[in-house]
Amino acid sequence: MKPTQDYILEHFDLYNRTMFGGTLPVLPVRLTNARTYMGMLTCRKRVGWFGRKQCSDFCLRISQRFDYSEQQLQDTLIHEMIHYYIGYHQLRDTSAHGTVFMQMMNDINRNFGRHITVSHRTSREERVQLLGNQPRPRVFAIIAMSNGKYCIKVVPRIAQRVRTMHRRLTADPQVCSVAWYYSTDPFFALYPSSMGRRMQYIDLDEARPHLSAATPLSVESLSL
Ligand SMILES: [Zn+2]
Prior knowledge:
This protein is α+β, with helices and mostly antiparallel strands. It has six helices and eight strands; from the N terminus they run αβββαααββαββαβ.
């Protein structure tokens, strides 16, 4: 199912009353197209009295990119609501999914028969699976950086864009080499496609089996 504002707000209200004592004020919900997360709670951090960090302007982001089961969507929402509860009530936790988070998560799972995990933001396999089985054609560069690391840059599948990005990348003094590929492997579908400056680091060992099945492209003789 695809998430909607109505569905999320309705279930936010239900879980707020049943799981969080009705203590959470309604917050803005943004439906995004993100590939990198299913749900994310954002806030504005500022340093308050005695150097204590305080969060305000909470916003809940849910990605519409994925085809969720109803339970997955609900668990994603509850997961983010635990973050919201901890942030809103300024509870101190040991880390993002620290002891306070885990305690609340386990209590909710036990008392309400949920299956919330801490992996909503991190499980690559799960997100690849949720993208579905249809091929995802992508054109991307694997960039060797001068610091010894590798980056990936996905661009729109338009020859002109590829050439423009290639010129930009090869002019960058931090870039050692650029190799272009075409692939329909969902592995590459999670990296956002853009003409912006941002690129992602990529673990070459993890990517190698996917890269060896990809088609190398020559920028000089491109016909996309
Ligand atoms: Zn989380």
